[in-house]
Amino acid sequence: MIETPPDTTKQSFDFTAFMREELADKVLIKLPTVFGIDFSITKDVLMMLIAAVIIIVFCHLAMRRPKLIPLPTSLQNILETMAEFLENDVAKPFLGEQTHRFMPFLLTAFLFILVNNLMGVIPGATKATANISVTAGLAGITFVVVQISGIRQHGLVGYLRHIVPPGVPMLLLPIMIPVELLGMLTKPFALAIRLFANMTAGHIVIAAFIGLIFLLQSWAVAPFAILGAVGVNLLEILIAFIQAYIFTLLSAVFIGLAIQENH
User: Fold this and answer.
1) Could you read off the pLDDT of 7-39 as tens digits, one per residue?
2) Do 207 and 22 meet the contact criterion of CB atoms below 8 Å apart?
3) Which residues, at least 6 apart from 241, have a Cβ–Cβ distance to it below 8 Å?
4) Dist CA 88 CA 86 (whole Å)
5) Is the dihedral of CA 196, 201, 207, 211 positive or negative?
6) Can you give the pTM of this predicted structure?
7) Cβ count near 207 (within 10 Å)
8) Please, are residues 159 and 242 in contact by the beta-carbon 8 Å criterion?
9) Rounded distance, CA 131 to CA 42, Å?
10) Virtual torsion, Cα 145, 146, 149, 151, nearest 10 deg
11) Is 96 left (phi over 0), alpha (psi -120 to 50) or beta?
């Protein structure tokens, strides 16, 4: 009996390798490592640099010739609308009279996250916020701002004294102090994971739809896969705004908790 040789015209599709390739942060320009820090320009670093340039140019054009009553479609009106929304609905409820003091940080964080999120919708581009290192860095900046704000408001001793809620019995202090310190550290951790998970999820779903074409090795599923990917991509635009808003809102909440009088 003559055995039929295996059909090698169709190569097996490694879906795991495909997803790993899609989510990988590729090095574009290799630079030397200084003091253990790799200064190479990766795709995510490039996206963040482009986002920073976009924000700088946008703010410069918006406020280059400010008008008392800007046109509804002008860049100044768009920027002022976002700033007013963040001030009245995000910052003021938690920061009160100190809202203006923290508005530059909150507006910058909102714009930076929003622009990076939206850039991931562009074909061929990536979302830097889908990189845990990036979101951890953003959360780390918020953590530093929270601690510095609390220390400036209450003094170092006063801030450390109020880590544990007042009125806690002395016998419970050995338990409460580690618990409160752990809670202090979980706040930036939650910020980083929340943004990273939501931005990565959309990218994975889109890549999964496209990967179906190669996994099933049939162009018959291509229209459905492409329509699904386009639908998720449009949904990603809404998610980009929501996640930038949530990160900014939680940052304002954490700062407010650190500076409030009964902290």
Assistant:
1) 444 455 566 666 666 667 778 888 888 877 777
2) yes
3) 114, 117
4) 6
5) positive
6) 0.83
7) 18
8) no
9) 11
10) -120
11) left
